[in-house]
Amino acid sequence: MRKVVLVSLDAFFDADFQYLRPDGGLTKMIQEGSVCRQVKTVFPALTYPAHVTLITGCDPVDTHVGQNQPYQPETPGKERVWYWERKHIAVPTLFDAVKNAGGKNCSVLWPVCCKNPTADWCFPEVHPLLGENVVLKTLRYGTPLFVLDSERRFGSLRQGISEPGLSDYAAAITAQTIRKKKPDLTAVHLIDLDEMRHHHGVFSKEAISAIQRNEDRLNQIRKAMEETPGMENALLIAVSDHGQSDISKTINLTESLQKLGLADDFGVQSNGESAYFFAKRQNADVENALAVLQDHLAENGILRLYSRADLDRMNAVKEVAFACEAADQVVFSDGLDEGKREKATHGFGPGHKAENCLFAVWGKGIRAGYEMPVMPMRDVAPTIAGLMGIALPKAKGIDHSREIIK
Ligand SMILES: [Zn+2]
Questions:
Q1: Per-residue confidence band for 8, with pLDDT thresholds at 50, 70 and 90
Q2: How many A from CA of 57 to the centre of ligand 1?
């Protein structure tokens, strides 16, 4: 099995290539390796559904992870659980495929991978709910000795979960694990850029600095690979999950449903720049709701509605009755979110200007300077499996590995 180090640059998209530095880690990967600049993200363009598609080769309709959080009407923001655990994914992952082939894997803050029975070393992405202890929860959801060792060595790099410290910490753990354990698959999720964009805007100076910090982290990880005997044939792969766009107006769709007389039949879950609507009872009239909303698009910040037939074409999860896309500059609220004030966000649908994500592969035997054509995000995992020489039979995407091997 060929070893892979998979690095996710959360919220990196095709408009960002202009900000790469000549000596940056991603620049080097693109010059010496192969890149796809148009990996079309999933619907909705959210971190958890996208990261699950990236490691399964399946869309949300098959993974059953169609949001960061399960729909939890009546539960306020800080008490809502997320899809933290591996058990939420309905199909096999690359970690399972590595394990089946007799290999070892490491995940650092990779979404929806907590309590993963096929993990050898897992630093979990999980948040404490009200009243919970973050240390105990992290130990319970990850691999305890790995978490403790990471904290002992690198704990001083971070201040809680704030950025850029958390991504510096994640990169340091990753480099250390590559040097000491040489896993067959190492996957790390760097959140820095996503956080900067939410807080400061898509092309703020803070976001541009985060792109450059991520390039330094890629250099740090590649150096660990190059300096470690046994890792000389490993591939470095960089991916992303969605872009972002700036927002200036919040629309509370729960209030919209109440005003339009639809609140008895439907509940709403905000995806940021789109929203899901759930039927509250079996004979809820979807046709009527779509017709009523269609007559009130502009005042509710809605660009377009997605019927169930549209959602089927978009490979969206089955339990949603219908959905809608936000107009430019609009973010949706469902009235139960945490009331955070953000300058940019995501969660949009297909055709959005921030939908083009990254897939870059660097290492021995990979075609240099090769530009791959546009592909759906579900093609990433089967291509990684193809490069590693392992089987991911439930994946629905296409394996492009032969295209990029010299
Ligand atoms: Zn994300």
A1: very high
A2: 17
Q: Quote the pLDDT of residue 263.
A: 97
Q: How far, in Å, is the centroid of ligand 1 from the Cα of 41?
A: 11
- For domain 4-243+351-404, which architecture applies? 3-Layer(aba) Sandwich (3.40)
- Distance (Å) from CA 285 to ligand 1 centroid: 34
Mean pLDDT for all residues in the chain: 97
Burial class (CB in 10 A: 0-12, 13-18, 19+), 400: buried
Per-residue b or e along 262-278, where b marks 16 or more CB atoms closer than 10 Å to that residue's CB: beebbbbbbbbbbbbbb
Distance 287 CA to ligand 1 centre (A): 33
**Distance from the CA of 327 to the center of ligand 1, in angstroms?**
20
Strand segments, DSSP code E, in 112-202 are: 121-123, 185-190
Q: From CA 315, how far away is CA 37, in angstroms rounded?
A: 22
Q: Can you tell me the mean pLDDT for 252-260?
A: 97
Question: Percentage of the chain with pLDDT > 90?
Answer: 95
Q: How far apart are CA 307 and CA 289, in angstroms?
A: 10
Q: Hey, do 4-243+351-404 and 249-341 end up sharing a CATH topology, with the first three levels equal?
A: no
Average pLDDT of the segment spanning 305-317: 98
Ligand 1 centroid – CA 198 distance (Å): 10
Bond from prior residue into 376 cis (ω within 30 degrees of 0):
no
Residue with tokens 């650092």: 108
**pTM of the full structure:** 0.98
The candidate with the shortest Cα–Cα distance to 23, out of 196, 218, 185, is 218
Once rounded to an integer, what is the mean pLDDT over residues 221-231? 98
Q: Does domain 249-341 have CATH number 3.30.1360.110?
A: yes
- What secondary structure does DSSP assign to 380-395, as a single string? HHHHHHHHHT---TT-
Please provide residue 228's backbone torsions phi and psi, each rounded to the nearest 5 degrees.
-105, 115
Tracing tokens 């330094």 back to the chain, one arrives at 216
Domain residues of the chain, as ranges? 4-243+351-404, 249-341
- pLDDT for 78: 81
C-alpha angle 105-111-113 in degrees, rounded to nearest 5: 45
Q: Rounded to the nearest 5°, which phi and psi values hold at 240? A: -145, 175
Angle at 303 between CA 279 and CA 330, to 5 degrees: 95
- 11 CA distance to ligand 1 middle (Å): 5
Q: Could you list which residues have their CB under 5 Å from ion ligand 1? A: 10, 47, 194, 241
Q: Which tokens in the block code for residue 102?
A: 């007799």
Distance 10 CA to ligand 1 centre (A): 5
